[in-house]
Amino acid sequence: MRQLLLVLLLASAGTAAATVGGGDITFPVKGADKAVFSHEAHVVGAKLKCQDCHPGLYLNVAKSKHATMKQMEKGKSCGACHDGKRASALDDCTKCHK
Fold it and tell me: Is the pTM of this model over 0.90?
């Protein structure tokens, strides 16, 4: 019985580790390709912690307002970090728009 419990526990841990944080979040964009936010790229790649963005910049998908590129260029939403200094600038559209 203990062995079965251990196997089930390890199997569920592998599934949970497959998605980092909130996984990918897709934002529909009027007049452009959808924008995709990757938690993995930010948490694993950039080594950010959840607290670096939550709850300051973002609450959750339902409560966070979608920002326009003009707003981001003024430091709102993604633009708070993606200013070309702290993180890559917003000038490469293909990084987010898929």
Answer: no
3-21 burial string, b = 16+ CB within 10 Å, else e?
eeeeeeeeeeeeeeeeeeb
Question: First vs last Cα of the chain: how many Å apart?
Answer: 47
Please tell me the total count of domains within the chain: 1
Enclosing domain of residue 49: 23-60
Question: Is the residue at 14 inside a domain?
Answer: no
pLDDT value for 66: 79
**Domain presence at residue 40:** yes
* Nearest Cα residue to 26 out of 69, 63, 61: 61
